[in-house]
Amino acid sequence: MKAIIIDDEKQARISLSLLLKEYCPEIEIVTDCENLPEGVKAIRRHKPDVIFLDIEMPGHSGLELLDFFDEKEVSFAIIFTTAYNEFAVQAFKLSALDYLLKPIIPDELVASVSRLKKQKRDQFSILYENIHSEKLDKIAIPSGTDLLLLNIGDILYIKGEGPYSEVFMTDATKYLVSRSLKNFEDVLQNDRRFLRIHRSYIANFDEAVSYSKSDGGWLNLKNGISIPVSPEKAGLIMEKTTVVKR
User: Fold this and answer.
1) What is this structure's pTM?
2) SS3 state of residue 94
């Protein structure tokens, strides 16, 4: 697979090239570029299979790359790279095809390259629409060598444990994700449906049917599932609920 690296830091380009050469020999770096305009020209000239794209660069954000191409022109995958957690969250929030946090860990690089082979064509459309929309409809989560595109409204609740989270869907399926609950909280913070009700749980409040104050507090969901509510979060639930007085 042919690849282009777009990053304003020379050392970052060199480091990624060396990692790819050692751990992903199937990737051929055809060129590297220090800014987005040069990168756009290189893409049109070399027609690569994948772009390793820095998000934060002087002059242009890497997220602006898609503005230079029509959907029919895009035959390449994108793996965003960034040294900043907030931009990693932004990439995750936008259902990015994939991203790597600098300094890049070889195992994560290998996993991202493996996922390239399974990426679907419609992921470009989802990413483009999310970048230009205030409301998110889908979210991309890594699952082994796959990148799953989930409808946000179909998430029942999310349970976090350290650096991992379990995403439980309304159809009873669940996914183990190598993202912390805080990451999900940051992504969903502007979505009125989701509320962190416990240090280990985020719930889709649209799926809630009742709140029980017994045994410390429980939120009961449509599927007959109950999840705990922290005492300090009980007030947030009451704020989102109209209580009928007798």
Assistant:
1) 0.57
2) coil
